[in-house]
């Protein structure tokens, strides 16, 4: 696993970013503006409080403390196996925000969820079920607007054939699937290990764009995320979603949170492409690309379903938009498809968001999560932060 400048956004010296680093004193919120670094911790204490400011980009220069900051060196020190703990390294770029995720917002991933459901999590049946699903449904669902009259007609036709699914309901129905991925402070950053539960025999990464949303529901920026998933667990029952999704180190975010400004907007997110590369110790290699714009619901629509008069997030939230990927390339026996092996290096990249790189291990082989919200508050209090 290499962590160098190729993991940074191609135009990173020209943008505005939120980063979070671990130092010898504790975690710090760092603002990057046109290549210059500012410590936001004295003014705000947390990334959450900073992003709840009316103008978080302007706050970088107006309230941040200029600091020397060698981003490439901090990035290199983020490698879990080559880290000098006396020097700073990158964490997930959020802290107290709720970590939420959308499911089945892309046709491909929606069909794969239907396949998981039909074969009850048994990967050996996946290829046969996949062919059957496509014969009945095809890819025509890509043109459907969720909740539309056309979508309702497709639902009626599928129900007649006995092929209606809870995944199709949230994929083309009026209500998006939005679930809690993990607890605040539980996400890992670039260079960290990501966890797969050892009881799972069918797992995969879920590369996604992740939006940052403040307490008022405004979309502030975007980053990359890996919504690691246990396909066999979720396939046995959708009621096991929490067990399939919320495991030690199973949520990665980063490398930086890019904030919207004059040079980077939500429209750039809609136009973005995500590249996925998986390299295994067994010589396995998988490369795929997906377009964010092929999402079935606009990002503003899912954010509107996340937060509003009926549900609030006073510390803000981040929202995984869903994945255009469901890797199915055979690894080992023909027809068994893809599953993670320990040691896999997963690289999720997009030109203007950088690359999120992590190594797969068992959940009990990843460092346990011990630094939660209480630990953060205690640490900030010992440091006398925030001061403003």
How would you summarize the topology of this molecule?
Layout: E1 16-22, E2 27-33, E3 36-39, H1 41-44, H2 47-51, H3 56-63, E4 65-66, H4 71-76, E5 89-90, E6 98-103, H5 107-118, H6 126-137, H7 149-160, H8 166-172, E7 177-182, E8 193-196, E9 203-204, E10 207-213, E11 219-227, E12 229-230, H9 231-236, H10 241-245, E13 251-259, H11 266-270, E14 273-279, E15 285-291, H12 299-306, E16 317-320, E17 345-350, E18 354-362, H13 373-382
Parallel strand pairs: 6-16, 8-18
Antiparallel strand pairs: 1-2, 1-5, 1-13, 2-3, 3-4, 6-7, 9-12, 10-11, 10-16, 11-13, 14-15, 14-17, 17-18
| Most strands sheet | 11 strands, mixed
Strand content range:
25-35%
Based on CA atoms alone, the radius of gyration comes out at: 21 Å
User: What is the rounded distance between the termini?
Assistant: 40 Å
Spatial shape: globular
Average of per-residue pLDDT values: 92
State the share of residues found in helices, binned by percent: 25-40%
Number of strands: 18
- Helix-and-strand structural type: alpha+beta
Quickly count the helices. Answer: 13
What low-confidence regions span 5 or more consecutive residues with pLDDT below 50? none
């Amino acid at each position: 696993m290499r962590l160098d400048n190729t993991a940074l956004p191609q135009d990173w010296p020209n943008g505005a970013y939120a980063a979070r680093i671990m130092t010898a004193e504790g975690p710090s919120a760092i603002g990057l503006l046109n290549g210059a670094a500012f410590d936001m911790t004295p003014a705000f204490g947390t990334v959450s409080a900073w992003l709840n400011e009316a103008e978080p980009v302007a706050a970088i220069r107006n309230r941040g403390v200029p600091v020397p900051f060698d981003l490439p060196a901090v990035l290199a020190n983020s490698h879990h196996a080559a880290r000098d703990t006396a020097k700073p390294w990158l964490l997930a770029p959020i802290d107290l925000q709720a970590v939420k995720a959308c499911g089945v917002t892309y046709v491909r991933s929606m069909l794969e969820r239907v396949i998981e459901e039909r074969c009850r999590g048994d990967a050996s049946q996946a290829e046969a079920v996949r062919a059957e699903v496509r014969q009945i449904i095809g890819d025509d669902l890509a043109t459907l607007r969720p909740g539309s009259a056309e979508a309702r007609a497709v639902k009626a036709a599928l129900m007649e054939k006995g092929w209606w699914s809870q995944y199709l309901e949230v994929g083309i129905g009026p209500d998006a699937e939005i679930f809690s991925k993990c607890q605040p402070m539980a996400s890992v950053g670039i260079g960290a290990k990501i966890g797969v539960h050892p009881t799972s025999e069918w797992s995969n990464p879920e590369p996604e764009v992740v939006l940052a949303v403040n307490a008022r529901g405004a979309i502030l920026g975007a980053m990359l995320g890996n919504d690691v998933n246990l396909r066999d667990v979720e396939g046995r029952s959708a009621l096991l979603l929490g067990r399939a999704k919320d495991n030690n180190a199973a949520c990665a975010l980063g490398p930086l949170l890019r904030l919207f400004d004059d040079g980077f907007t939500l429209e750039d997110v809609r136009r973005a492409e995500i590249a996925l590369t998986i390299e295994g110790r067994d010589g396995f290699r998988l490369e795929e690309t997906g377009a964010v714009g092929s999402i079935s619901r606009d990002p503003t629509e899912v954010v509107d379903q996340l937060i509003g008069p009926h549900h609030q997030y006073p510390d803000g939230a981040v929202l995984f938009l869903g994945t255009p990927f469901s890797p199915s390339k055979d690894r080992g026996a023909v027809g068994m498809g893809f599953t993670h092996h320990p040691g896999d290096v997963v690289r999720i990249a997009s030109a203007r968001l950088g690359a999120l790189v992590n190594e797969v291990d068992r959940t009990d082989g990843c460092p346990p999560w011990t630094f939660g919200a209480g630990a953060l508050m205690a640490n900030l209090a010992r440091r006398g932060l925030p001061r403003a």
